[in-house]
Design a protein that fits this description.
It is a single chain. This protein is mostly helical. It contains four helices and no strands.
């Protein structure tokens, strides 16, 4: 699917007037890959456990039970990632430095700042 979209967009590049080209497609592709990684991080331990271990030890069952709810946390990280990146790339007003990681995270999550 990714290859098909890439080839179609490559053919239409000659008709584009903006210099951006395929930047949005690349961003969407990366976001989709991050969602797949988040899914696999949550489910891969269970798949491996079912495939390799016929009878799982109790500690492994507890580990898998903790990984399932973490999928929502991983999805939230992926969901907030584009906003965090845009916040991180913004310049601090009156300075030549970029925003700090903590400031970017606070702005992304709309948390009250401790000022």
């Amino acid at each position: 699917l990714i290859r098909f979209v890439y080839t179609v967009e490559k053919k239409t590049d000659t008709h584009r007037s903006d210099g951006e080209r395929r930047q949005r497609t690349i961003e969407v592709t990366q976001q989709g890959i991050w969602f797949i990684v988040a899914y696999m991080a949550a489910w891969l331990p269970a798949i491996i456990g079912l495939a390799l271990l016929r009878k799982s030890p109790p500690s492994y069952v507890v580990f898998i039970a903790c990984m399932y709810p973490l999928q929502g946390f991983f999805n939230a990280l992926v969901y907030f990632r584009p906003k965090y990146i845009s916040q991180r790339q913004q310049m601090v007003p009156g300075s030549t430095e970029r925003a700090s990681r903590l400031t970017s995270m606070i702005n992304t999550l709309h948390l009250p700042s401790a000022t």
